[in-house]
Amino acid sequence: MQQNPSQRSIRALSAMNFSLADVRDGLGPFLGVFLIGHGWAADEIGYVMTLGGLAGMLATTPLGALVDATRFKRTIIAAAAGLIIVGTLALLISTNFWVVAGSQIGTSVFAAIIAPAIAGLTLGLVGQTGLARQLGRNQAWNHGGNVVSAILAGAFGYVFGLIAVFVLMIILAIASIISVYLIKPSEIDHDVARGLEPSAQHRNREPSSIVILLKSRALVVFGITIFLFHFGNAAMLPLLSQSVVSRGLADPSAYTSATIIIAQGTMIPMALIAAWVAQRRGFGIVVMAALIALPVRGLIAGYWDNPWALIPVQVLDGVGAGLLGVATPGMVARLLRGTGHVNLGIGGVMTMHNVGAALSPALGGFVAAHYGYANAFLALAAVATAALIFWAVGSRMEGKAYAATA
Questions:
Q1: Per CATH, the architecture of 7-403 is what?
Q2: Given this model, what pLDDT does residue 143 score?
C-alpha cells in the first residue's frame, strides 16, 4: 500500500531527525574527552561506556516490541529525548564513577527506543513502497544535524569549553520534541508501522516475542553481522580523539568536532546513495559495501600515527555507518514484511548492535591502556574483518532470503 503523508508531516519527520542527531547519543564522542579532562584513564572510560551499552542492549528488544504494540510513538520519542538530557546533565553535577555509570545506563536505555520508534513512525507514514527512499532522507537529515551540531559544539566549545556541548543538547532536544508533535497523528497507519500488509490486518496480531525473531535464520545472520560490525567500529572514534587529546596534540572540542564533521558529512551522500541502490538492487549489497570499509579504517588508524589520520579514518566511518544506517531498518522491514513484528525485529537487531557497541570500548580501552592505541585500532580491525567474512559466507547461504528484499 502506498501512503501519501502530507508535506507537513514529512518535513516534521526530517526536522525531528535533524534535531535528534545531537540528542540520542548523549555526549557521544565528547564523553571521552570530557572524562579525560576530569582525570579518567582510557580503560575506565571504556568500562563505563560498556555499562551503558549493556543497559541499552537489554532494553532494546522489549522496547521494540513496545513500539509494535503502542499507538503513542510520537510521545515515546519526545519523552526519550527529554530524559536523555536529564541523564546527561547529571555529569555536570559529578564525575564520580557511579554517577557517570548511572548517567550512561539511563541515557542508553532511553536512547534504545528511539531507533525502532523512528523506524515504526516512518513505516507508518510512507509504507513499504516508500520506505527505502524515506530512510535515506531520514539518515541524510540526521547526519546533517550531526554536522551542524558538531560545528557549533566545536566553535562554542573552543570559546566557552565543553559546557557549550551541554547547552546545545538542551536546545536541540526542545526542537526535536516540537518537531515530533508537528507530525499529524491521523497520517500514521499503526498496522503498517508494525509490518502488517493491508490484506493481513486482522491476522498476526499476537504479542511480539523473541521466539519470532529466532525463526528467521536470515535475520539471525544479519543480526550477528551487525554485532560484529559495531564490535569493531564503536570504539574507533572515541579512541582516535583520546589518543590525540591525551598527548596534547589538539584542542579537545575542536578535534572531536572535526572527527564528527568529516564522518557525518560523508554519511549524508552515503545515506542517499544507499537508498538509491537499495531501491534497485536490495539492501544486501549495501551491507557488503559498509563492511568492506571498516577493516581498512582500522588499519589506517593503527598504522598512521598522526592527527591528520582522522581524515581518511572518518571518511571511511562515514561510508560504513552511512550505508548501514539505511540498510539496517530497511533490511529488517523487508525480511519481516507481513509478520506484524517489524519493530520487534529492529529492536532485536539493535540489541545486537548495542552488544557489539558495548563490548567495543572495553576491548579498545583495555588494549589501548596496556598495549598502546595503535594495537587497539588493529584489534578492532581484526573484529571488522571477521564481520566481513561472516556476512560473505552467511549471505551466500541465505541468498534467497536477501534477494527477496530487493
A1: Up-down Bundle (1.20)
A2: 85
